[in-house]
Amino acid sequence: SAFYSIGFGQYLATLVPMPDLWMLSDVQVGALLAGAIFVGVNYIGAKETGSVQTVIVTILLGILTLFAVQGWLSFDFETLLGDGGLAPLGYGAILPGTALVFVSFLGYAKIATVAEELKNPGRNLPLAIIGSVVIVTILYSILVSIMLGVVPWPELSQSAPLTQATELAFPGGLAVFAVTIVTLGALLATASSANASILASARINFAMGRDRIVTNWLNEIHPSYATPYRSILVTGAIIVVFIAALGRDIEVLAKAASVLHLVVYALMNAALIVFRETDPEYDPAFTVPLYPITPIVGIVLSLGLLAFVGTQELLLSGVFVVVAVVWYFAYARKNVPRQGILGEYILDRGTELPPTLVDAAVNIAPDGATRVDDAPKTMVAVSNPLTEHALVKLAAALATHEQGSLLATHVIQVPDQTSLQAAAEQRDRISTTSRQLLADAREDAEELGVRVETRTVLSHQGLAEVFDIACEHDIDTLILGHGGAKLAGGRVEGPLDELTHDLPCDVLVLDGQQFDATEILIPTAGGHSSDLSATVALALQDVVGANVSVLHVSDDLDDGREFVETWASEHGLQHAELLVETGDVETAIEQASAGRTLVIVGATERGLLSRLVGGALELSVLDELETTVLLAERPHERSLRERLFG
Fold first, then answer.
1. What is the chain's mean pLDDT, rounded?
2. Which of 53, 132, 375, 626 is the most exposed, having the fewest neighbouring CB atoms within 10 Å of its CB?
3. Residue whose C-alpha is closest to residue 526's, from 491, 487, 563, 561
């Protein structure tokens, strides 16, 4: 980002006089101005950033086409061959030149950093990367050839070559106007690259914060713009430092950036091999052709170019690598919650692999990290196409917060008169809907970046089978649709199940076809399941930036305020809006839910007979609310007396 901003500053200085400022040159001042503008654009949001990029690229292509046409008319092949032919410094200078200009081709991998914001990334991401590489390489070759056919290479400007070539290519009367337009095009080109680089860098910081490689403080989402604004501001601060420190020697900055990205490209190719060889569930929508030749060649070429970079740049890049390693062992290793795929593969085969390799995997593994298979598991039971998307969206948000996986299950309930064996023989016919339902669930979960498994089960039971599957897979959180049941009963199980069984895990029941966690209301009077309501709200606050309000209804305002402040503090909701009301509970909930998008309520602690005799007035209002309701119930030991009488 700093490199592109400095390029912007160089062309800006040829178009508009820029003052020197303290120890900064005019180019550095222009670069700082560019960096500030595009940090601001990214701060506002990816949609606005994409719109700016579209406008910039459209105008830029028009200007470059104008230059290419006029430049071709002024092109002289003898000037191109000129002093020393096509390789005046010898063919041995081509690879060092490649290492230097490699920084100009860094933007393509950055496309992948916004994959979470793409529609159908399995198709569109490869098309975007491969297509842009091919198109831009062709344009780059054409424009550079034209410049060298207009201006002899020894005379080509080091700071603004496009402007110089334009001045010579256009007739005298049009030269000044053309230089201004083409310089504007060069500004747009560097601005586009700087803008895209800042967008990608901020997303990388955000992803590292989410994975706890850096502090999760970076994950804060702006309440108005829904962007990782802290990550973007940190990126902007780093850009300022690089511009101020290295802005006078752009070649060093360019080569250092090339070195770091060559190392990253080599690691990306190695990571592809690791995924393909160690993860049996790795099934990408796009597969690299000629595997494994392609990634191996990528590794060799990326690392091979390092030999053609200067010692100073290698040392500077080495400093960054050392800092990254120190950061991992000093901070990230203590906080990263999950073991990597390669480390897990090595540890699973500890008796088959060399002890030195196994010891290395143990020594660098994150402290206390869970294995992928041991990560928290969320299960969503889908049965209705109308509610599938809402349920999966909720489940994916919770799985993302827990750094865990998702199991999507559809139970096909078979009539008691039909044997399961007979049903299994006709599985293909009766499970058509199930396949489509789970395919939709998988697509929704993968679009949200969550690892998902799917399972269809034939059973004579309904909810009981769902609970059995949750026990079998050691599920931590189970998410269900309400299935038409009334929520006024206040519990997940039916009356008989409530008396005879315990829940297998935390259970959430979503009553609604839409899921929007923008504004959350938690009515609470305390209780075991109320703790789960707070846990879910905190997770949604972390993942989607939800605004949380807590409601408590009390006979006395002072007592109520003391209770809700204590409860919110104990559950990590100190910054939530605290509401205290007196009077009728149903009325208070109904009024407080106005303007909210989700009401999360803990299951009642009252016993079955108490609810049957006295009713559950405080929960009957939930069936009347227009707002989506989420019933949360956490399992805990209760005696038969407690189950009956509360």
1. 78
2. 626
3. 563
